[in-house]
Amino acid sequence: MSDETIEVRAEDGFDVAAVHEWLSGEIDGLVTPPRVRQFPGGASNLTFLLRYPDRELILRRPPSGHKAASAHDMRREYRVQAALKPVFPYVPTVRAFCADRELIGEEFYVMDRLDGLILRGDLPPGLPLDAPAARALSTGLIDRLVELHQVDVDAVGLRDLGKGAGYVERQVRGWSERYRKARTDNVPEFTEVMDWLAANQPGEVRICLIHNDFRFDNVVLDDRLDVVGILDWEMATLGDPLMELGSTLSYWVQADDDDVFQASRRQPTHLPGMLTRAEVVEYYARRSGIAVENWTFYEVYGLFRLAAVLQQIYYRYTTGGTSNPAFKDFWQFVGYLDWRCKQVIEKGHA
Question: Which of 200, 196, 198 has its CA nearest to residue 342?
Answer without folding.
Answer: 196
